[in-house]
Automatic annotation (TrEMBL):
This protein's name: Ribosome-binding ATPase YchF
GO CC terms, sorted: cytoplasm
NCBIfam families: redox-regulated ATPase YchF
Regions annotated as coiled coil: 128-155
Gene source species: Winogradskyella arenosi
Binding site for ATP: N10, V11, G12, K13, S14, T15
PANTHER family given in the database record: OBG GTPASE FAMILY, OBG-TYPE G DOMAIN-CONTAINING PROTEIN
Cofactors demanded by this protein: Mg(2+)
Lineage: Bacteria, Pseudomonadati, Bacteroidota, Flavobacteriia, Flavobacteriales
Amino acid sequence: MKAGIVGLPNVGKSTLFNCLSNAKAQSANFPFCTIEPNIGVVNVPDPRLEKLEELVKPERVLPATVEIVDIAGLVKGASKGEGLGNQFLANIRETDAILHVLRCFNDDNIVHVDGSVDPIRDKETIDMELQLKDLDTVEKKLDKVKRAAKTGNKEAQKEEAILLKIKENLEAGVSVRALEFTEEDYEEFVKPSQFITDKPVMYVCNVDESAANTGNAYVEQVREAVKDENAEVLVLAVGTEADINELDDYEERQMFLADIGLDEPGSAKLIRSAYKLLNQQTYFTAGVKEVRAWTVNVGATGPQAAGVIHTDFEKGFIRAEVIAYEDYVTYGSEAKVKEAGKMRVEGKNYIVKDGDVMHFLFNV
Ligand SMILES: Nc1nc2c(ncn2[C@@H]2O[C@H](COP(=O)(O)OP(=O)(O)OP(=O)(O)O)[C@@H](O)[C@H]2O)c(=O)[nH]1
Ligand SMILES: [Mg+2]
């Protein structure tokens, strides 16, 4: 599962990527600096891991990770080959969620491809390119089902109706994610097409230092414009955070963060939000050798969770011993949790909860 950083050229995408990941992407003050996508595996900050570390005192601690991709900037006409063209839309298609970066800072020294700062116009430019790309997809599909629909094939007629609904909405500037379908229709006719505008989205407002904590008028415009989209809007002083990140000393970084009114980097919040946007959750294993956070889809079963560690664990799954994170912390150790009768034994149909501390029993 990966989240892609998307937006106009020169709005701070690679700078943001560098805040998140140790893999350094080139960032510079000219449009189309990024061509090939930069891929980074990013640790998901989770205070629960520190707590578990305190209690278990393991040899090592491993956080959950999420993959972030920094993609080339899109401009008007990209879907028709403008700018760096179509290939970048293909990079976006390969992601599972979109982090849409909007320039919300003034700085005459930093070139804006459209000549002025206007996050709403920018958002519409990007949305339109993505919608045009989806329009291509839906038109190709329609061509295919049309004939079968004409011959009276009921399934094809149903698909045709759904595709037409998508097409009309895209033409009116409405993204696929905003449309309503029955669950069966969605699974059968919509999801397989992997529409770009169906991917979950989060808006990242790149503001200047003074607005890191409070936001600014641009951010308010963005909030107003997306209020019906049910999407998170995150405020981040990307440039400033990149500078703070350069500091080696933890105390010093905290001091500078406090100066701009933050108690943790906005990028930490962004990673957690991206993780949620990807529909991921965490369970823990806690042993003296290793305390570790593992990533599973929301809704995963016990065996599926075990399968994240090893496929043999999934195949040979017998049962799982499960302790809720809160209970682990309340009682302080596995032994004490057991004593208190708070350890549960769960079978194959168990739906994993975020924060479960799990131990799997299996045979191979
Ligand atoms: N003033 C200011 N400058 C910023 C901020 N974020 C990024 N920049 C600058 O803007 C320029 C472009 O940043 P990049 O991160 O390379 O932009 P990009 O979106 O990756 O651009 P492309 O790869 O060309 O699409 C660089 O000179 C950054 O230092 C910010 O928050 N404030
Ligand atoms: Mg870039």
